[in-house]
Amino acid sequence: MKLAVIPARGGSKRIPRKNIRDFCGRPMISWSITAALQSGSFDRVIVSTDDDEIAEVAAAAGAEVPFRRPPALSDDHTPTRPVIAHAIDSVVTDGTRVASVCCLYATAPFVSPDDLRAGYAKLQEPGVSYSFPVTRFAFPIQRALRMETDGQVEMFAPENFLTRSQDLEDAWHDAGQFYWAAADQWRKDAPIFGAGAVGIPVPHWRVQDIDTEEDWRRAELLFGALGSGR
Fold first, then answer.
1. Most-buried pick from 4, 136, 151, 213 (CB within 10 A)?
2. CATH for 2-134+172-229, options being 1.10.10.10, 3.40.50.1000, 3.40.50.300, 3.90.550.10
């Protein structure tokens, strides 16, 4: 079985109720659910939540909510891995064998069905432990500045001051949308960004962390501008 797990706890602090807040005409979580369903990559799409309202919205969008996440896995400091492992264990109680699992975040409106399919295809290659979307930093990180409290700035790496931007190595970062791995991999105490982690390049205009109201507004503007091309 190929399983999508969408973690969506109810206690978001920086943007209250952000998992089900209206985003461009729909509850935020519904964009991730729809992408997962349209990808055709999953036998089941489930939402892991501790919140009854989120469960209701997720079910209306087409996901399954077969359990409630326990309080011990629903606080601000709970990492992703035990949440996914709990979801897997909750599904296999009936003897079902789960082979591959995709952790898909509830606040990833720019995720596409094509990306999800590409992630699964990459996971099938030899030696791949995790596959997930990555994007280039928009500016060379080798020329990053440090700002002191009095406003003065200095380079983190002054030796790169005279190096042309085009001569610096591209730097990439996690897009924060989804992670594919074998079910057993989620149960291990191994880092996602360790050996066997493989990135799937996506354009940086389809990547936006949504942690503040400013992030949210920027994401809405970008989402609306992209329209059907997202």
1. 4
2. 3.90.550.10
